[in-house]
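In practice, a research group might receive sequence data for several interacting partners and want a quick structural hypothesis before committing to experiments. The following worked case mirrors that situation: the sequences arrive first, and a predicted assembly follows.
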Amino acid sequence: MRSQPLALLLLCCAASATLAASPAGATRSAQFARLPDWSGLWISAAWKLGISGRPAGNEKELRANMQLLKPPPYNPAWNSRYEAGLQDTAMMAQKNATLKVCTRSFPALMEAAWQFEVATLPEETLLVFENGQVRHIYTDGRPHPSGDDIWPTPLGDSIGHWEGDTLVIDTIARDASEPLTPRAWVSLFSDDARFTERLRRADANTLEDQLTIDDPVSLVHPWTVVLRFTRVTEMNRMIAANCVENDRNPIVDGRMLLTTP
Amino acid sequence: MSTHINQPAPSHRGRGPWMALGMLALAASAIAHHSAAMFDDLQSVTLAGTVKQFQWSNPHCWIQVLVADTSGPVEWSVEMGSPSQLYRGGWRPSFLHAGDPIVVVIRPMRDGSKGGLFVSATHGDGTPFGGASK
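A structural hypothesis for the assembly, expressed as tokens:
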């Protein structure tokens, strides 16, 4: 009986060695070898958070850094709605006062204050965020689904391909009812919006995402912003965040409170 | 939840809260877990007291501070960032214990409740925590 575990171990080792030495194993190893190394923890460069969990450089600096808060190049009809929305200060104030964010839609997720890791596999690239959200970008050559196989979702449907060390991502079917990002409450796009990203490592400690939004329904021309991410050096592992463990900020009668334990 | 739960300190060496005006930035709506509109970022309150409890928890860490008042100790809740954010800023769960003297500067709640947003903190003798008090 004692020899069974040893025999099993030897069998596994032999199988593993056979796989690695096989043509299929060699092909897969070569596929991985062609992928860039984006390991580590990354976070949006727009956020420089202090111990308070708030922007160290205050709200003004944050607003200047956040690319998705800039006004989109809307056509006249959409711009009228956009400007009218900005003038609705009561609505804006109420949304800001009662805002609680546990997840974000795309592309807001790419400019959130959450760390993320990038796992580059031959078949897909995964962007894994500390709040638990994951972007799946399929790079195996598949097209977007069609017909009843696709519907609007907060993150949309993403496929991609590699151009050298740049991952080119194509995203459609993003839920058009979602504002572009929290605080840009009136930055909306149509169901036809298409998002193209060129994600690459600009230097050893910087990832760069050139994001172009093309929406003939709402925009006069495609709109490009560049999002940057810096390598997190103060910690070497992802610590999952969540909103439920010790939430002491209930919203009561339209106001956010602070409770005592 | 990884919290540090301690008994209330037997003595409270705080001097009571005092108000100090701060000239800071615009209306708060920064977004971490929730809006900061509930905090008055034109005001600063300095709490000098003792730590009742340090909650190292998501979505926010908290310092419960007991501040001496004429009618007895008053408990204040000080909201901070997430454990991940504090860790990156050099803080650790072991930094605070029940009974530790502490001086905390906060942006107070607009509704007057006993709480606010963390700005900075020092030990009772004025030294910073782990070199990262901001």
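Before designing any experiment, note the following. Chain B touches chain A through 52 residues (CB under 8 Å). Confidence is low (pLDDT under 50) at residues 1-31 of chain B.
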